[in-house]
Specification:
Largest interface: A-B, 26 and 24 residues
Number of helices of chain A: 0
Structural class of chain B: mainly beta
Order of helices and strands of chain A: EEEEEEEEEE
Number of strands of chain B: 12
Shape of chain A: globular
Largest sheet of chain B: 6 strands, mixed
Radius of gyration of chain A: 13 Å
Number of strands of chain A: 10
Distance between the termini of chain A: 32 Å
Distance between the termini of chain B: 41 Å
Structural class of chain A: mainly beta
Oligomer: heterodimer
Order of helices and strands of chain B: EEEEEEEEEEEE
Helix content of chain B: under 10%
Chain lengths: 114, 115
C-alpha cells in the first residue's frame, strides 16, 4: 500500500527478551518518527530521523532502546531486555520535510511484555 | 518546555449533538504550530488540521471547526451535528520553533457518539 507500514502488528514477549519493530515509511518521505502510546496515555516521542542528519534520540527512555534507519527508508526500533513497563503501542510516522507537522502514521505495533 | 493539556478524558454525546473538544497549550516560543489528529479504532492517527501561531483566524471544514485563541492559549475543536463515525480519540499537538521536529501531544479525548 501507499501508507506507512509497521510490523509486527502484535508482539507478545517474555520479560528479558529483545524485540525488533519495523517501520516502512511512505516512499519519498525523508522524515521518520517513532512514538510510544501507553494505555490511556498520549503519544510519547521517542526518536526522529531526517534524511542523512544525525537522529534526534532525546526521547528514548533508556539505553535499552535504540533505532536505526537504513538507506534513508526502513527503520527498526530495538528494545533490549524488555520490561513490563515497555508494554505499549509503538507508532511510526513519516513526513516530507516540506510539510510542517503533518505526519502520516502507521497502525502501530502493539507490544505486550509478560 | 512544551505542554498540551486536554482536560476532557472522555466525552459521550448522542448523534446530531454538537461537541467541543478543549485543548490548552504552553510554550515559550513565539513561533509554533498547533495540530489536531484523529485516532479511530483502527489505531492509525489521521491529520486533521495545522494552525500557525500568527494565524488566529478560525477555520471551518464541513462539520469541523477550530477556534484558536492566543490570549487563552487554547485551540478548541468543535464537531457540529456529530455522527457515529466521529467516534475516535482526538489528539491536540504542538510544535514549537525550539522543539526541533518533535510534536508534543496531549493525552487525547475519547469521543463516543451514540446513535
Amino acid at each position: 500500500g501507499a501508507g506507512v507500514s509497521q510490523s509486527p502488528s502484535n508482539k507478545v514477549t517474555e520479560k528479558g527478551k529483545d524485540v525488533e519493530l519495523r517501520c516502512d515509511p511512505i516512499s519519498g518521505h525523508t522524515a521518520l518518527y517513532w512514538y510510544r502510546q501507553s494505555l490511556g496515555q498520549g503519544l510519547e516521542f521517542l526518536i526522529y530521523f531526517q534524511g542523512n542528519s544525525a537522529p534526534d534520540k532525546s526521547g528514548l527512555p533508556s539505553d535499552r532502546f535504540s533505532a536505526e534507519r537504513t538507506g534513508g527508508s526502513v527503520s527498526t526500533l530495538t528494545i533490549q531486555r524488555t520490561q513490563q513497563e515497555d508494554s505499549a503501542v509503538y507508532l511510526c510516522a513519516s513526513s516530507t520535510s516540506l510539510t510542517t507537522g503533518e505526519l502520516f502514521f502507521g497502525e502501530g505495533s502493539r507490544l505486550t511484555v509478560l | 518546555a512544551q505542554k498540551v493539556t486536554q482536560a476532557q478524558t472522555e466525552i459521550s454525546v448522542v448523534e446530531k449533538e454538537d461537541v467541543t473538544l478543549d485543548c490548552v497549550y504552553e510554550t515559550r516560543d513565539t513561533t509554533y504550530y498547533l495540530f489536531w489528529y484523529k485516532q479511530p479504532p483502527s489505531g492509525e492517527l489521521v491529520f486533521l488540521i495545522r494552525r500557525n501561531s500568527f494565524d488566529e483566524q478560525n477555520e471551518i471544514s464541513g462539520r469541523y471547526s477550530w477556534n484558536f485563541q492566543k490570549s487563552t492559549s487554547s485551540f478548541n475543536f468543535t464537531i457540529t451535528a456529530s455522527q457515529v463515525v466521529d467516534s475516535a480519540v482526538y489528539f491536540c499537538a504542538l510544535k514549537g520553533e525550539t522543539s526541533g521536529s518533535r510534536l508534543t501531544f496531549g493525552e487525547g479525548t475519547q469521543l463516543t457518539v451514540n446513535p
